[in-house]
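Researcher: I'd like a candidate sequence for this fold, 121 residues long. If you have to choose between options at a position, lean toward the conservative one.
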C-alpha cells in the first residue's frame, strides 16, 4: 500500500511546503558598481554589515558599494591583511639559527642514508 501513495510523485522536483504563515526577515538591497560603470544589486539582511566590495554574479569582477548619494563608498584600508606565507609562520615559531641547525641535521642524515644504500658499481 505504501508504494502506491508515492506513485506519480516526482521527488525533489516539487516541494510540499508552502509559504503560508512564513514571515521573512527584513532585507535591504545594496547596489555595487563595476569599473566599467555597470551596476548590480545584492540583497542582505537589514541588520547585516554591508561589505564595501562584492563580486559580480555575472562577470566575477569586484564591484564597489554605492552610497545613498550614488557615489562609491571609500574603502577602509585599515582592515586589509597581508597574507602570511609558510615561511612567515615558520619564523614565528623558530629562529633562523634553529632552522639552519635543523636543516644541517636533516641534510647530514639524508646524505648518510644515501651513502649506505650505494652498492658497488
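Model: Candidate sequence:
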Amino acid at each position: 500500500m505504501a508504494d502506491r501513495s508515492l506513485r506519480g510523485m516526482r521527488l525533489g522536483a516539487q516541494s510540499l511546503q508552502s509559504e503560508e504563515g512564513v514571515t521573512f526577515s527584513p532585507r535591504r538591497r545594496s547596489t555595487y558598481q563595476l569599473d566599467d560603470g555597470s551596476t548590480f544589486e545584492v540583497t542582505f539582511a537589514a541588520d547585516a554589515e554591508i561589505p564595501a566590495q562584492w563580486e559580480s554574479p555575472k562577470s566575477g569582477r569586484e564591484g564597489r558599494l554605492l552610497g545613498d548619494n550614488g557615489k562609491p563608498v571609500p574603502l577602509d584600508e585599515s582592515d586589509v591583511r597581508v597574507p602570511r606565507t609558510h615561511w612567515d609562520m615558520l619564523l614565528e615559531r623558530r629562529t633562523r639559527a634553529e632552522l639552519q641547525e635543523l636543516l644541517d641535521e636533516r641534510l647530514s642524515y639524508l646524505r648518510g642514508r644515501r651513502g649506505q644504500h650505494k652498492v658497488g658499481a
